[in-house]
Amino acid sequence: MSSATQSPPLTAPPTPRISAHGATRKHVWALLGICALAAVLYGWALDSGNYANAYYSAAVKSMTGSFTNFLFAAGDPAGVVTAAKPPLAFWPQVLMVWLFGFHSWSIMLPQVIEGVAAVFLVHRTVRLWAGENVALLASLILALTPVTVAINRSNNTDTLLVLLLVAAAYAGTRAVHTGNGRWLYLSAFYVGCGFMTKLMAAWVVVPAIAVVYLVCGTATVKRRVADLLGAGAVLAVTSFWWPVLFDLWSGRKPFMGATMNGGALENIFGYNGFGKIFNFGQQYGGSGLNVQLAAVGMSGGEPTITRMFALEAGGQISWLLPLSLLVLAVVGAAGYRRLWHAIPGDRLRRAGWLLWGTWLLVTIAVFSFTEGIFHPYYTTSLAPAISAISAAGLMGLWREYRDGAGRAWVLLPAAVAVTAAWAVVLISRDASWHGWTRWVVLVTAALAVLGLVAGRQAAGGHATVGRWALLAGVVSMLLTPAVWSAGTAIEHKTNGGFPSAGPPNEALNALTRGELPPGVRIPGMEDVQSRPPRGGGFAGTTLSAENRKLLDYAVRNSGNAEIALAIEGGGLAASSFIIDSDAVVVSMGGYLGADNAPSVGRLRQWVAQGKLRFVLSAAPGGPRMGGIAGMGGERQKERVAWVEGNCSVVDPATYGGTPPQERLLPLPSFGDATLYRCG
242, 264 in Cβ contact below 8 A? Predict the structure, then answer.
C-alpha cells in the first residue's frame, strides 16, 4: 500500500523546457507524416464539385462582387441580406476565389489548410507542456477525430474557429511559461478573432485561459490581474469592432440576417448568440422547418449531461471522451493528495491540465445544456482538448504502470478496457457501416489488457511486454475513429451544411431533394411520395432543368433591371441560382425566408424604379405547408401576398417549364414555385 508521502498517480518529472532544436529528426518526420495524413483526409477529392454548405458557398461568391458585400458577408449578389454570420471565416475563401476563380476546390482549400494548421498547432502547444511524444500522439488523435474530418471537408465556420481556439491556447501557454503578459493579449486577440468567426462559440475557452494564467502565472497577483483586465479589453475590441461598425455604417449595407430589425448586435444577443443557448429568438418572424430536426439528422439530442454520448453526437466526438474524463478524475485526485500532503508539484504541468481540462469541462457543460439549436458538428470544438488530455493521460498512466510501486498501475489496462467497450457500443448503433471493427477492437483491446496484466507479473521484463501491450491498446482506441474518418473522406461526402462522420445521413440527403426520409410515410399522400418534387429540393448547388429554363427566361426579359430574379424561400432556395449562374439574384428573407429583407415596401420600390421585373414565389393561394414559401413565417407571407396581388403569373409553357404541383409534401421544395412578372 502506498504511503502518504509517495507521489500520486500521473505524477511526472518536471515539464521539459523544449528549445527550438529539441525535436529529433524522427520527431520532425513523424509530425510531417501526421500533417500529411490530415491533409489527405481533409482534402481527398477536393475537386469533386462538392460545394458542401450551399448557403455559405453562395455567400462567398456574392462577397466577391463588391467591397460592402465582402465587408459585411452578403448572402446574395445584390447585397440585400447577410449570411447571418460574421465574415472572418469567409474571407480566406473569398481570397481563394479571387485568385483561382469560383470552384468548389477553391472554396474548400482554405478549410484544408486551416485544419492541418490546427493539427500542427496542437502539437506545438502540447509539446510545451508534455514533450514531443505526447504532442505527436495528441496531433494524431486530432487528425483522426471523425467530426473534425467531416467539418474540415465542409466550408462551415467551425474549421477556422478550432484553429483560432488552439492558437489562443498556444499563446496562453506561452504566457504562463514566459510570464509575459503580451502573450496573454495575443491569446485574447485570437479568441476575439474566433468571435468574428462564430460569435459566442469562441468564448468557451476564455475561462480556461483566464484560470490557468491567474493560478499558474509567475508574476505577482496584482500584475496577473492587471494582465487579465488588459486581455479582456483586447478581447472586447477584437470581438465587437465589426458588429459596431456594421450597426454604425451609414452607407448602403445588407440587412443582418436572423434578426427582426437588421442589426448586428441584435444578432449577437439574440438568435445567433444567447438565443442558441437559452432557446429564444429561434422562431424569429415565425420561421421553422416543417419537419422534426431529429428526423433528418440535424438535431443534437436532448439537453442533458449525457448529450455528448447520445446517438446524435456520440459517434462524432465521444470515442476517447471516457478516457479523457477518467484521466481528469485521476489528475484531480492526484492534485487533491498533493494539497493534502503538501507534496510539491510542477507548475507548468499543472497549467496544462488546468488549460485543457477546463476547456473540456466548460465546453461539455455548455453543449450539454444548450436549449436552442445544437448540431452534432459543433462538437468539433471539443476535439483539441480531448486529444491533449487523452495523449497526456495515456503517457502518464504508462509511467505509473512502468514505474509505480502501488496499485495505480491497473489504471492503464482499465483505461484501455473502458475505451474499447465504449467503442463497441458506438459501432453497434449502426453495425452496417464498418461494423467489422467491433471484433478487431475487442480482440486487440483484450490482448492489450492481458499483456499489460501479464507484464506486471513478469519479473524484470514488464516494461518490454507492457510497451507492446500499450501499443495494442492505442491501436484499439484509434482504429475505429480512423476507419470512420477515412470512410467519411473517401466513401461519402459531407451532408451539405450539416457535416457528419460515420454512416451517411440519408434522411438529410432526402430532405435536400424535397423527399421524405427513408421509411417515413404520410397516410393519404402515397401518390405525392412516389415522385420527386418538380424542380427538386432546397440547398442544392446545381440548377434543375426547370429552374434553369425559368432563370434564362427572366434574364432575357429583364431589360435593364438591376436584379434578374428575386427568389422567395431564402438562401436555401436561392443557393443553386447563385452558385450555378452569374445572374444577379436576390434571396428573399435570408436563410429560411423569415427575415424582413426585402420588405414589401422595398419590393414595391424596386418594381416602380424598374430594378426588378421577375419574382419566383409560391403559386397563387400560397404560401402553404411545404413548397417554396413554407418556412418563413409572417414576413414571408406578406411578401408572397404582395407578389400575388401585384404581379402576373408567367405561363410555364412560355419558357418550356411545367405547371406547379397542387399537392405537396410538408417539406421545402420547388414543387409550387411560380414565376411572376412585376411592373
Answer: yes
CA distance 420 to 438: 9
Show the beta-strand stretches assigned E in 244-362.
none
Q: What is the Rg, in whole angstroms, of the alpha carbon atoms belonging to the chain?
A: 27
- Contact yes or no for 55/132 (Cβ under 8 A): no
pLDDT for the residue 526:
66
How far, rounded to the nearest angstrom, does the alpha carbon of residue 644 sit from its chain's CA centroid? Answer: 39
State how far the Cα of 360 lies from the Cα of 3, in Å rounded to an integer: 32
CA nearest neighbour of 324 among 396, 367, 386, 408: 386
Number of helices (H), then strands (E), belonging to the chain: the values are: 26, 5
pLDDT of residue 459: 58
Q: Residue 559 and residue 82: Cα distance in Å, rounded?
A: 27
Query: CA 145: distance to chain centroid?
Result: 13
Distance CA 161, CA 424 (A): 31
Q: Is 656 helix (H, G, I), strand (E, B) or coil?
A: coil
DSSP codes, 94-111: HHHHHHH-S-HHHHHHHH
| Residue among 649, 676, 679 at smallest CA distance from 566 | 676
pLDDT under 70: residue ranges of the chain: 1-22, 278-299, 341-343, 459-462, 493-496, 524, 526-530
Handedness of CA 63, 86, 187, 381 (dihedral sign): negative
The set of cell numbers assigned to 144 is: 483522426
- How many CA atoms lie less than 13 Å away from 84 in the CB half-sphere? 26
Residues 662, 672: Cα–Cα separation, whole Å = 7
Among 119, 121, 76, 112, CA closest to 93:
112
pLDDT for the residue numbered 294: 55
Cα dist. 113→64, 93, 95, 163, 508 in Å?
A: 21, 11, 14, 10, 28
CA distances from 78 to 159, 582, 591 (A): 28, 12, 15
Residue 175: closest CA among 153, 132, 131, 208: 208
**Inter-residue contact 114 to 97 (CB < 8 Å):** no
Q: Which of 549, 524, 552, 546 is nearest to 533 (CA)?
A: 546
Task: Read off φ and ψ for residue 255, nearest 5 degrees.
Answer: -75, 135
Contact 582, 570 (CB under 8 A): no
Output b/e per residue, 156-166; b: 16+ Cβ within 10 A: bbbbbbbbbbb
Return the SS3 of 383: helix
Render pLDDT for 525-534 as a digit per residue (tens, 0 to 9).
Answer: 766 666 778 8
d(CA 22, CA 661): 69
Residue 468, Cβ density class (10 Å: 0-12 exposed, 13-18 middle, ≥19 buried): middle
CA distance 171 to 176: 9
8 A C-beta contact, residue 472 and residue 451: yes
Q: What's the grid cell of residue 603?
A: 419590393
Per residue in 264-295, is it b (16+ CB within 10 Å) or e — as a string? bebbbbbbbbebbbeeebbebbebbbebebee
Cell numbers that stand for 301 in this block: 439530442
Residue reference for cell 448602403: 252
CB 535 within 8 A of CB 546: yes
- SS3 readout for 228-251: HHHHHHHHHHHHHHHHHHHHHCCC
Phi, psi angle pair for 616, to nearest 5° = -105, 115
Q: In angstroms, how far is the first alpha carbon of the chain from the final one?
A: 90
**Residue reference for cell 476564455:** 206
What is the 8-class DSSP label of residue 586?
A: E
Spell out the alpha helix ranges (H) of 25-90. Answer: 25-43, 54-63, 67-72
Query: What residue type is assigned to position 70 of the chain?
Result: F
Nearest CA-CA partner of 290 in 514, 573, 574: 514
